[in-house]
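Try this one yourself first.
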């Protein structure tokens, strides 16, 4: 980008996020006409912003984002192979390991989606758990108990002290005396970082940690916290439809297996008191379906997706599909009555 002392990084961030002043917008707009590199920078920032990578304070969980550093975006694959090579007798050949990641679509062209980190370790018999919102104390505690840990960090923040929105998987080896020691697949070697430096890079993944053990880990559920997600009235009402349909799916599968209604559950006779229409369920049973539906919608929002109703109208004159935002049919010109 051409040297321009009047346009700072902070100004660009405000411009991309829509918080720039009128003067700043005018200044950047004028510069964009002449500076192709600046246009490229803005394009990259906007892409990262849409992916949630630059929004440090966003409540969005980057589950679908990919760990994408190292040649071929193989940082996670290299981390998992490092763990198997060093802590397991079941380490496969490198090409076989990579083929399994590709064949199962755990590794994609863009890298390994965060929700797929650890899948190869599972494949080779290790017990794996995944959790967001972790702390350095939790990380250190797991390592002390001989649990292997992969953490996902912002590569730019870790290496250059400046976020670049690129996620990177590393194996955390020790957390001791204010220093975090890691295996870094980007250099296929080891690195030491001050705890606060590592924590700053780790926070961009919402402190995502994948734990693996050759022994049976005690299973402690860690659902993603969605309590901070607020839903509008229309989405809240949607939970009842999802809850009822979930009951219908459950009852349909049970019926196909031979279950039918009975006042008491009987495994031998295949009787179940919930084999009734949703409206006839006790409120306590409805609560579980509603809670599942409500938290599913909240999770979708937490993962950065929007849920919108798609309105489709027909032109009364020619019968063609038209968008709800249109006042006149683009096919025949007839005025659309939206009442």
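Now uncover the answer:
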């Amino acid at each position: 980008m051409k040297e321009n002392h009047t346009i700072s990084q902070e100004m660009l961030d405000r411009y991309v996020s829509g918080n720039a002043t009128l003067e700043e917008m005018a200044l950047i707009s004028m510069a964009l006409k002449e500076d192709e590199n600046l246009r490229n920078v803005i394009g990259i920032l906007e892409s990262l912003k849409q992916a949630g990578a630059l929004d440090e304070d966003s409540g969005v969980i980057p589950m679908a984002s990919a760990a994408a550093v190292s040649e071929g975006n193989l940082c996670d694959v290299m981390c998992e192979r490092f763990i198997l090579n060093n802590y397991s007798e079941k380490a496969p050949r490198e090409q076989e390991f990579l083929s399994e990641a590709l064949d199962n679509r755990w590794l994609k062209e863009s890298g390994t989606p965060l929700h797929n980190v650890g899948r190869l370790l599972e494949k080779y018999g290790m017990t794996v758990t995944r959790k967001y919102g972790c702390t350095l104390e939790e990380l250190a505690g797991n390592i002390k108990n001989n649990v292997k840990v992969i953490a996902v960090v912002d590569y730019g923040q870790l290496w250059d002290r400046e976020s670049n929105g690129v996620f990177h998987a590393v194996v955390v080896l020790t957390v001791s005396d204010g220093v975090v020691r890691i295996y870094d697949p980007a250099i296929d070697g080891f690195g030491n970082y001050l705890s606060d430096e590592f924590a700053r890079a780790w926070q961009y993944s919402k402190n995502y940690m994948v734990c693996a053990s050759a022994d049976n880990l005690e299973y402690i559920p860690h659902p993603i916290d969605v309590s901070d997600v607020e839903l509008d009235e229309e989405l809240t009402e949607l939970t009842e439809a999802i809850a009822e349909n979930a009951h219908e799916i459950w009852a349909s599968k049970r019926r196909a297996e031979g279950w039918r209604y009975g006042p008491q559950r009987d495994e031998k006779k295949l009787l179940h008191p919930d084999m009734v229409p949703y409206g006839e369920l006790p409120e306590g049973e409805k609560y579980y379906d509603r809670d599942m539906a409500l938290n599913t919608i909240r999770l979708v929002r937490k993962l950065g997706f929007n849920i919108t109703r798609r309105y489709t109208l027909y032109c009364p004159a020619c019968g063609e599909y038209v968008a709800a935002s249109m006042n006149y049919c683009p096919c025949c010109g007839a005025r659309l009555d939206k009442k």
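Discussion: Residues 233-256 form the longest helix (24 residues). The chain has four domains: 9-51, 66-213, 233-302, 310-339.
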